[in-house]
Amino acid sequence: MQFSTIEDAIGNTPLVALQRIDIDVCRARGNTILAKLEGNNPAGSVKDRPALSMIQRAQERGDIQPGDTLIEPTSGNTGIALAMAAAIKGYRMILIMPEDLSIERAQTMKAFGAELILTPKSGGMEAARDLADAMAAQGKGVILNQFANQDNPRIHYETTGPELWQQTGGTITHFVSAMGTTGTITGVSRFLKEKNPRVQIIGAQPSPGSRIPGIRKWPEEYLPKIYDPSAVDELVSVTQDDAEDMARRMAREEGIFGGISAAGALWVALQINARVNGATIVFVVCDRGDRYLSTGVFPA
């Protein structure tokens, strides 16, 4: 008998309809808002997909082999997913992350056996990326480089996009995603636009001064190389306060315990809901809210 492995639990996540938030507007306009529950992946986020994809495909190409050291700068979710994937495949994993990210993320990475290096809060993710590049240049390991690795958006083209198309019966009209590495929005857009060029792709970005884990507006010199501007029809800014408030509402009113970037995507989906009719609006719940308990976003 052939049994499944933990790898087989990645993907095919549920798509569920909101039942209370903005439901009156939905009914009046004939819209439906759907949440893609990526926190149901085994390491708890949408990043499980590209993490395993990047390691598997690098191994298949002969770029790495079990026992090698991998290095990756991360804001959290990719690091956790890579730590899990490295444990599955037999790699040493060094993760570099800003010191101000939640303690739950750091503890989870360590639980999977990863080694952590923290960079100053003031340097943000840019400093983490610079340190990773320097370590790789010194021969201390191989960077998979989620920001430039085409195996990141490719897995969303191969899995996330087709799942959404199948789960909505091809009725999806708007796709909303937080933008971090941009792998999700780029890969999903590529698939959905092939199926129906009229599907609108909307990216959630932080407003000036906002720090929302998982959502970034990169300086030009750090813009992910995998990002395809032509894949995104509209960019909408969300404030930190609006994202954090929506995270609390999502848990209390819908029973969906998602992270702050997911809540930012929902906030953007609600802006779309207020101005369109007859739409099927899908947003990504990137991860789970228990990853943010120590931040104070949720009441103690």
Automatic annotation (TrEMBL):
Record key words, sorted? Amino-acid biosynthesis, Cysteine biosynthesis, Pyridoxal phosphate, Transferase
Q: What is this protein called?
A: Cysteine synthase
NCBIfam families, A to Z: cysKM, cysM, PRK11761.1
What are the BP-aspect GO terms?
Answer: cysteine biosynthetic process from serine
Entry EC number(s) = 2.5.1.47
Where in this chain does the record put each Tryptophan synthase beta chain-like PALP domain?
6-287
Cofactor(s) required, per the database record = pyridoxal 5'-phosphate
PROSITE patterns per the record? CYS_SYNTHASE (PS00901)
Q: What class of enzyme is it?
A: transferase
Kindly list the GO molecular function terms attached to this UniProt entry.
cysteine synthase activity
Q: What does it catalyze?
A: O-acetyl-L-serine + hydrogen sulfide = L-cysteine + acetate
Record's PANTHER family?
Answer: CYSTATHIONINE BETA-SYNTHASE
Instruction: Tell me which family the UniProt entry assigns to this protein.
Output: Belongs to the cysteine synthase/cystathionine beta-synthase family.
> Which of the residues bear the PTM N6-(pyridoxal phosphate)lysine?
47
The family database entries (InterPro entries) matched by this protein are listed as:
Cys_synth, Cys_Synth/Cystath_Beta-Synth, CysM, P-phosphate_BS, TrpB-like_PALP, TrpB-like_PALP_sf
Q: For pyridoxal 5'-phosphate, which residues are the binding ones?
A: 77, 180-184, 261
Q: In which pathway does it act?
A: Amino-acid biosynthesis; L-cysteine biosynthesis; L-cysteine from L-serine: step 2/2
